[in-house]
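Issue 218. Parser rejects a valid record. Input:
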Amino acid sequence: MKYGKNYLQQLADYLKNNLKKGYTKESLKWALVNQGHSKLEVEKAIRLVDAELASEAPVLKTKPVITYNIEPVVENKKPFWKRFFGF
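Output the parser choked on:
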């Protein structure tokens, strides 16, 4: 069953709005399927939303630099016998 590009765009807009609200793709997918929408059409709309959101994502121009500063830990512990006998 074909509904046209407008139908897919309406589904995509619905998905995008609800993804921004915090719903998961999987929960939205099954909600739409349970409302009577075709599973294939919903999956096409999800792919469309993924492509739109990917195009809107900012492109990182520089790679982050990760530095490690490891300081040695030195513990001044007395031996067991000196602690036990109080030396």
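Fixed in the parser; the record now loads. The chain has four helices and no strands.
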